[in-house]
Design brief:
Layout (H helix, E strand, L loop, with lengths): L6 H10 L4 H14 L9 E5 L3 H10 L5 E6 L12 E4 L5 H9 L3 E4 L6 H11 L7 H8 L1 H10 L7 E4 L2 H11 L2 E5 L9 E4 L5 H8 L3 E5 L3 E12 L2 E4 L3 E6 L2 E7 L5 H17 L4 E10 L4 E7 L9 H4 L4 H9 L13 E7 L6 E2 L6 H4 L4 E5 L4 E2 L4 E8 L6 H16 L7
Parallel strand pairs: 1-2, 1-4, 2-3
Antiparallel strand pairs: 5-8, 6-7, 6-8, 9-10, 9-11, 9-13, 11-12, 12-15, 13-14, 15-19, 16-18, 17-19
Helix pairs in contact: 1-6, 1-7, 3-12, 4-5, 5-6
């Protein structure tokens, strides 16, 4: 393994050596809830973030009798139309987060821009559990610290090197025969990443991303996989291994179960369970993986929240990832993560050249299609490649790779039939 352990990773290991105050509070909260019959109406869940994930969390919470309050800087954010209330404020606004905590029985987050130190402080002040644990969020926010921590735990990851400047990057490119340069913090959907094939390209790459980066070896993968895992008071569980299809580093489609060998799926699940046992805090985690050409499994990245690659679970599993996350962070028994029927989910992205008001055309083609399910995220503006919704297609009779291929083709055809362009 190429890499170096930094002080942040060492500190994080020290934090995990003994339960934090937040972890102890979570355990007490979970035991209190599991030691008696659950009654309804349920508690109020505060969510930092009110995008599409917050919206779907609120949709899943309502049938459970759980009310949701979201904190988001965008007035009338996507979750606001289904949550009980929105607090308008920045994710790291101390006053806004304290207001959220004061109105909630438990806290969680749907975006990594939440401030782990602030969440930990507010949890102490208001005696409210936060899940996943703020220490886990702190580790995952920094991609270099995340990779160092996983490697130290013996979890397989691609080779990586921390980059402190142009000289470091040139050496990394030479040692790893080209790298994917990643911003250590932030970045998603292809943002914050840039390939560097030659040492002479180092300066331009650092100008684009900044010097606070890490270099990761290119992985000659057979396919990309995802495991949606959950950690709760009654243990860990995983959803079926899912195949993820990306273009320009943006997730376009998910196929579940993945079109790969049973042995690969078993190994992916084993690695995912190791990740879940390594992390602190209840909740759903999106674990992105590479299946190498040799059939090995490497961890790409982890999201400490419901994940785009798990949207298929709304129709395709017995309990969606969103309901499971609500249950877990409240310390409730987990629902079944078993497959209900083979499922493909495709992302609906903005197909416009410039930002414009979001009006989707030809929706009837999806609504009229059997076993097709449309999900709208409530965003008022369509932007190029912005995630605006998704379409899920199920087939209870799909049994092999050819059937899954046909299911994927059908889902992509439905997606391609709708547009934000007024033709």
């Amino acid at each position: 393994m190429t890499g170096h352990a930094g002080s942040a990773a060492a500190l994080d290991k020290n934090v995990r050596s003994a339960p934090t105050t937040s972890q102890v509070r979570t355990l007490i909260f979970a035991r209190r809830n599991l030691s008696r019959m659950t009654t309804l109406p349920g508690p109020t869940l505060g969510v930092v973030g009110g995008g599409q994930l917050g919206r779907m969390l609120a949709e899943a919470a309502a049938p459970l009798g759980v009310e949701v309050i979201v904190l988001d800087p965008t007035p009338e954010c996507p979750a606001s139309l289904v949550a009980r209330e929105q607090i308008v404020g920045e994710f790291d606004d101390p006053d806004a987060v304290r207001e959220l905590a004061a109105a909630s029985d438990a806290l969680t987050f749907e975006i990594e821009l939440a401030d782990p130190d602030l969440l930990a402080d507010v949890a102490d002040e208001h005696d409210v559990p936060v899940n996943p644990d703020p220490g886990t969020l702190r580790t995952i926010q920094d991609k270099l610290v995340q990779k160092e921590a996983l490697a130290d735990a013996g979890i397989p990851v691609p080779d990586f090197i921390g980059v402190g400047g142009e000289k470091d990057l040139k050496l990394a490119v030479e040692e790893l025969d080209g790298v994917m340069l990643k911003a250590r913090e932030g970045g998603y959907d292809g943002r914050g990443n840039t390939p560097v094939q030659e040492p002479d390209d180092a300066a331009a790459a650092l100008d684009e991303l900044g010097v606070d980066t890490m270099a990761e070896a290119f992985v000659p993968f057979e396919r990309e996989l995802s495991v949606i895992g959950v950690k709760g008071p009654d243990g860990v569980a995983t959803y079926p291994v899912t195949e993820t299809i990306h273009e320009d580093e943006i997730l376009r489609a998910s196929v579940s179960p993945a079109r790969t060998d049973d042995s690969v799926r078993d190994r992916a699940r084993e690695v995912a369970v190791d990740v879940l046992e390594f992390l602190d805090g209840y909740g759903v985690y999106g674990i992105e993986l590479f299946e190498t050409e040799n059939g090995d499994i490497l961890v790409n990245e982890i999201a400490p929240r419901p994940h785009n690659s798990g949207h298929w679970t709304i129709e395709g599993a017995h309990t969606s990832q969103f309901e499971t996350h609500v249950r877990a962070v409240l310390g409730w028994p987990l629902g079944s993560t078993d497959l209900a029927e083979p499922t493909v989910s495709v992302n609906l992205l903005g197909d416009v050249d410039e930002p414009e008001s979001a009006t989707l055309h030809n929706v009837d083609s999806v609504l009229e299609s059997s076993n097709a399910h449309f999900h709208w995220y409530g965003k008022k503006q369509a932007r190029p490649l912005r995630k605006m919704g998704h379409i899920t297609v199920t087939d209870p009779d799909a049994a092999d790779a050819d059937d899954y291929d046909a299911l994927l083709d059908r889902a992509e055809s439905l997606r391609d039939g709708v547009t934000f362009v007024d033709e």
